[in-house]
Amino acid sequence: MLRAAVQAGTEVGKRAKAVMDAGELVSDAIVNAIVAERIDQPDCARGFILDGYPRTLVQADAVEAMLAERGIALDSVIELVVDDKALVGRIVKRAEDAKAAGQPVRKDDNPAVFEERLREYYKKTAPLTGYYYAKGRLRTVDGMASIDAVTAEIEKVLAVTAK
Ligand SMILES: Nc1ncnc2c1ncn2[C@@H]1O[C@H](COP(=O)(O)OP(=O)(O)O)[C@@H](O)[C@H]1O
Question: Which EC class, in a word (predicted)?
């Protein structure tokens, strides 16, 4: 959603771009507003998956309020558990693949910016696992398995929780 705003060149997109390129988190106010607007679109009427959101405790509280206002229940929260070192390798590979395919390389797909993204994760996002564990909503999936195995695990969680 943020990338779409950047692509569209909106005022929000322009502000978000610099922050994203530096590997920092975009402000809670911006992200919360984008999500609140998006989940009111007709294609979300039967349910939706928020990928990479919430990423801070403020966002988690905001999503709770958004869902409560709309009478929607949160089915589950999936944590993909990965090894930090392997992630650097994946990012370097994604940058190489994009370059080889003649596509633009993401400014945040390099080891230096990745370190900042990781710092942001431990400071602001990691506390969410405790938050959702305490609510009995947290499901953990091994993100180091093959793409097919990770997909199957996520589908299993969704099949149990979605009605
Ligand atoms: N929930 C969020 N809160 C704040 N910033 C976010 C959030 N989700 C994404 N971002 C911003 O977008 C950047 C890229 O996020 P990422 O999830 O890696 O994107 P993609 O899904 O395109 O790979 C983050 O480093 C951050 O700047």
Answer: transferase
